[in-house]
Structures are given as structure tokens and as C-alpha cells.
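User: For my dataset I need records formatted as: sequence, then C-alpha cells, nothing else. Please produce one.
Assistant:
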Amino acid sequence: MKKTILMFSMTAWILWANHSNNNSWIPMGGYTARLDCMDYMEGIAAGQMTKPSKGVTDVTLKDQLWVDFKDGSRIMFTCFPDTIDPRTK
């Protein structure tokens, strides 16, 4: 059990963005802990809620961050361990 916990705690986390228009995944930043990645994502959400970008209609934050736009598109932000690359099939 200790070995599993140690390996998990050493894993790096990547914040990814996925745009619904072209389903492309873009890495936005790397973090040493999931909590750091989630904190950054929460910062993006707070910024969009207090001073939204042009065309933003809704911001939803749960395990992922969803930013919806007037044109019907959306961007999803999520944190994955560095062992997961959502661009691969």
C-alpha cells in the first residue's frame, strides 16, 4: 500500500483544454499535485465568473470546468495525470 501511495504522490498532473468545435486537446500547464492543477482550474473559473471573456454564456465547475459560448461551442478544462494523454486513441 505504501508503494502505491508513494507512486501516486510523485505523479505530475497536466491541465488540458478541449474545444468542442474541433475536439482538439491542448495541454495548458503542468503541476506536481492534482490539487495544484485543480486550484489553477478554479482560478480560471473565478476569472470567467467575475470578468467573462467575450461571448461566454455560462461557467460550470465540478470535477471539470466547462465554459460555454454564445455560438454553442464549449471548452472543457480537466486535470489528468501525466500518464494519460487524451490526444492518443
